[in-house]
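Before going further, learn to read the protein records used in this course. A complete example follows; check for yourself that the lines match position by position.
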Amino acid sequence: MFQFGPDEKTTCMLFVKFERTGSVAADRKENVGPRQTVVTPENAAKVSGIVQQNPQKSIQRTASETGLKYTSTQKYYKIVYGCFHIKSKVIKPYQ
């Protein structure tokens, strides 16, 4: 016959853990969740300076010039300019 549900050993371990801690929740220690980007004024100034020189520069190119990760640079764009950077294009009006 098929056995459904948790194994006897699993049930025993959960029971012992509940008696010891009062909870069966997972033990979350370190490295839980996404990594956090630390915002520093120096890095914000680097990104801002490069964007002011050439606003059409991509996030990837800005990241390689500053030595920051792509996602960190993307976060700086959002903090400094209030939105994610979209590469600008010059559109000529109809004549």
Summary: The chain has a mean pLDDT of 78. Residues 35-87 form one domain. The radius of gyration is 25 Å.
